[in-house]
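Quick question, first post here. What does this chain look like in 3D?
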Amino acid sequence: MMKALVIEKTDGKPGQVYYPLKQVDLPKPSIRPGEVLVKILAAALNHREVFIRQHLYPGINFETPLGADGVGIVVETSSPDLEHQWKGKKVILTPGRGWESNEDGPEGKYAIVGGTVGVSHGTLQEYVALPASELEEAPGHLSIPEAAAIPLAGLTAWRATFTKGKLRMGDNVLITGIGGGVALFALQFAVAAGATVFVTSGSEEKIARAKELGAADGVNYKKEDWSKQLKGLLPKNRPYLDTVIDGAGGDIVLQTYGLLKLGGVIVSYGMTTNPKVVFPMQAVLKNIEIRGSTMGSRKEFTEMVSFVNKHGIKPVVSTTVKGLSRADEVFEIMRKGTQFGKLVVELGDDAGEAARL
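> Answer (accepted):
Ran it through. Tokens below.
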């Protein structure tokens, strides 16, 4: 048997309910041909887990453990070849299924790991059986919590920044809502690629921390004239934005169309502020594009991990707790939005083992 974390069904309407966490004992998974068994060392949260608990996410399954992000060690394999390739290695798990390489979108029915129908496991569980093709070796320069932080946020940021944003060296890019996992990965990726990065946040402290990570500057979006302030910060030899990477929605086009170059791009990977975006005629006349971007393919996941390795990128981890029983602590941090970086749960006694790997 193994311990896992699921949600418990209670009465309540979507958006008003908040399903409690429940620790359960489940059968330890058995592996099939082509699969390996991974002992999970740590799992990281994403906003989707909060949305699942609020019943604001499609396809909720009360029996599937939560969690899309995970790092672990391969403890069992289904063949001598897989044993030679993977046994004993520290690995990160892909967070989705059904999307191999198509740049436009999934080839089939796409499913994200954890808490929903489509994939039978999560990462907030002690063991996971999965195809060996869904593994990447964890970057050696990362700690266990840092490695756990990579999968879904890293993949989402990679696709938004490079596949959809087409970011290049020398570009000016605005990343909104700095402090969340995707925004911070986008910042680190863009800086590593040689772009000049500006950020927004409702916290001066978060802006200061973003500058420590390489942002050129930032503005507080709680100020009504923040877009005017940002205009004054742009380089005189390139006084416009090439790209905006946004996870808030709402008035983002209204606030930035005047700053974007002709043909500039707004990449939307989420709409946490308002699920609708106003697109004014002024943006049409400037040939501005808004491009939706969500998650990413298996191919993009490999590219992202390779980039992390090449540039020695270290994910920002805000808070780590030890043990499934303390997971609610980091959920509360995410609900309040006070984190700067990823929120991680180390599983049971594995933290000591992880430190020795």
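The longest strand covers residues 35-44.
The chain has two domains: 2-153+296-356, 166-292.
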